[in-house]
Recover the amino acids of this structure.
């Protein structure tokens, strides 16, 4: 059963429009998906939007108060239309959270199109601020695949989607530093409304493609840094490729494979807060086919070194 819209916003049933607006703004700031990363926050935000869209419109609110969750199926002038045009001996009744709309029709319906009169029950309804038979378009969602570097840079992209009406191409402004699962809203580009009702919105959900060079954890980027044995033993400054360009890593002496070094703020950008970090993981690489002099030096090192990485304790 759908939740009561007044409970969703935390207001009483006799709350004024100012109280409803203030409650929505307070909760929307708390649960907006760009601010609250809890997976449940997005659904909570949708619920708040739906409740506010109903209760902020006086006409829609009156229908909701009278018919409960069935309010979308019944026109506001339902009883007047039945009494004036059909000679009905009954009317619609409903209650918040009720099971449906009951009709008490008697005879005398010659020339009255009941399907037209109760169009909402058969899949048609009145959109807010529209005429009877006008239904707002549905919101739609599609995936937007991006590479790590594309997501890092952002920018204008052309996106072509295939739907029931064929292919459509959109110009999309991808925010810099978008992350996997983040949604980009294209207002009015969703399902078309009927009559004079508005179209829905199109939401593009970002999917970051796997990349052999980078691994993402939220806004943090993990990257492997290959180094030579002597760089690892003696320390060095080594270049590290990142989605934003090449940076310099100060490799401490005595760094073994698997050691992670953090470069603060070198991860995915965050327009609304702190940028992510870059974690460089050391990987010691040896020459696959050492030359004659290299082999001599390795053999000399093996003869004089007392280091044994397999010793424990």
């Amino acid at each position: 059963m759908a939740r009561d819209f007044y409970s969703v916003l935390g207001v009483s049933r006799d709350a004024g429009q100012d109280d409803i607006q203030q409650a929505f703004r307070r909760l929307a700031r708390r649960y907006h998906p760009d601010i609250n990363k809890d997976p449940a926050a997005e659904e909570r935000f949708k619920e708040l939007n739906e409740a506010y869209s109903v209760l902020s419109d006086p006409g829609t609110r009156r229908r909701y108060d009278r018919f409960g969750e069935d309010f979308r199926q019944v026109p506001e002038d339902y009883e007047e239309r039945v009494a004036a045009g059909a000679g009905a001996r009954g009317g619609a009744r409903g209650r918040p959270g009720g099971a449906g709309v009951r009709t008490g029709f008697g005879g005398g319906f010659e020339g009255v199109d009941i399907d037209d009169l109760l169009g909402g029950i058969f899949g048609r309804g009145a959109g807010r601020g529209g005429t009877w038979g006008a239904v707002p378009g549905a919101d739609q969602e599609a995936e937007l695949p991006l590479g790590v570097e594309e997501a890092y840079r952002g920018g204008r992209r052309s996106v072509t989607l295939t739907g029931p009406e064929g292919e459509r191409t959109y110009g999309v402004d991808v925010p810099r530093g978008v992350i996997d699962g983040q949604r980009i809203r294209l207002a009015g580009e969703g399902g078309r409304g009927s009559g004079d009702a508005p179209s829905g919105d199109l939401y593009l959900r970002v999917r970051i493609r796997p990349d052999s060079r980078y691994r993402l954890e939220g806004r943090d980027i993990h990257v492997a840094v290959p180094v030579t044995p002597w760089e690892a033993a003696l320390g060095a400054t080594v270049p590290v490729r990142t989605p934003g360009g090449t940076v310099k890593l100060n490799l401490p002496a005595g760094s073994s494979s698997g050691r992670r070094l953090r470069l603060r703020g070198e991860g995915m950008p965050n327009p609304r807060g702190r940028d992510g970090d870059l974690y460089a993981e050391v990987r010691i690489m040896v020459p696959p086919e050492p030359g004659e002099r290299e082999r001599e030096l390795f053999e000399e090192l093996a003869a004089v070194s007392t280091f044994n990485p397999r010793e424990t304790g």
Observations:
- The first helix runs from residue 5 to 9.
